[in-house]
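Kindly inspect this one:
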Amino acid sequence: MSGIAVSYGSSDEADLRRMLAKLEHRGEMSGIVRKQDIALGYRSNCLNGAASPGDVETFSSNGETSAVCDGYLFHGALFDHDNSSLVARLYEKKGMDFLEELEGTFALAVTDGESLLVARDPFGIKPLYYGQENGTTYFASEIKELAEVTEDINIFPPGHYYTPRHGFQPYEQETAADPDPMTEEPEKAARQLNEIMVRAVERRFLEEERPGILLSGGLDSSIVAAAARHISPDLGTFAVGLQGSPDLQAAQLVAQHVGTRHHEHVYTEEEIMQVLAEVIYYLESFDAPLVQSAIANYFASRLAAEAGCHAVLCGEGADELFGGYHYIKELESDEAVESELQKIISIGHAMGFQRVDRMNNAHSLESHVPFMDQEVMDFAAVLPLAWKIHGKEQVEKWILRRAFTRELPESVVWRRKAQFSHGTGCNEMMEQLAARRISDADFARAREQNPGLLIRTREECLYFRIFQEFFPQEAAADSVVQWSSLEGDNQ
């Protein structure tokens, strides 16, 4: 894991030091390089290839070109440990056009001493924000970091780059080789998808990171575990939930079937209340469904960190690519479904991907999302919609289920999708807890005082109250994405 801080203008190094101090959870080491009115700062557990196992180079300075990068980058099909060196080399060779061939997840900045380029990966899997203060523009990995120097807090748009000359501009990346799914033969396509998923996991499975699998017992994380079993015979899986929760039971079944060293934690209402403020601080959101799922994610990540993992693999992204949301089955046409799936993935950076990044980094873990591998995404893009939502029963993620039907228990392969918070049993508890702590008058007052925000329930009011204690800036609340049309079913 790592984090960055960047300024363009008349800031001094004290500004970036205050910013980087807020990112200790993203790395023990830090540094700053200044070139005229451009300053680049980084947080990392690695500098120039040395330090903790599995960490990658975050800062590079070679001659006139310097780069910082929070990311996991590929050059061709190979993972490149020297993230920032790769960025610097490609920038020197191709200028801003290098973004077209960069594959992976990243938030980066590079300068040759005169110009500055800042960029974020196409789906915003790595976080990035920006704001201005007294003529200086700042870029930061997290809101808490940016708030040290400005109250102007904005989301850096995914799939864009920024230069002082051109402002924010979208860029396009080259796709992988054109996939050739057997559109007449779904069984062959399913086998092809299985192979693609195994390769996607393998590209992100570094033994030196001691990677673990966050295993909810749902289809997506179970597939990641099954794919990882092709790569390593020694896997650690991590599951959490309330006593008797469906996720715990399903995760145990998958772990036994796949053959992993399984760890689980049964948490209580008291434990939730002990960590709730910390969850919201790291999550940087008060969206109720997101907070609910983040609570479970927090406990699972902590469990993995305590077991000695430096990274975890997660199942995020499968629902967006393969039609996993129940409500989209009610849409009127295939075009409407495809449009809605694109809409969902376009805000993933402020929903599921944000949760995955923040909760794992809260415990100093790198997080990997194999479903967002370019090869997987390209394959999903050309599959017939009828193979994603299939038959009269409208089985969601049907082709994905077929791809792993021989490697997972049948009850898991055909398990109906449930929100992470529902599967762990967290949602009902949090609703009841909020009802005891937030009165009708509290709820009405919060809605009246914040007319521009969605505060839909007393539970969300509780989370918003905690959020404001950490982030009183109006722009911080405005940066929280809530999708009212999904009414909480987008997690």
Notes: The longest helix spans residues 288-306. Residues 256 and 308 are 21 Å apart (CA to CA). The domain at 186-486 is CATH 3.40.50.620 (Rossmann fold).
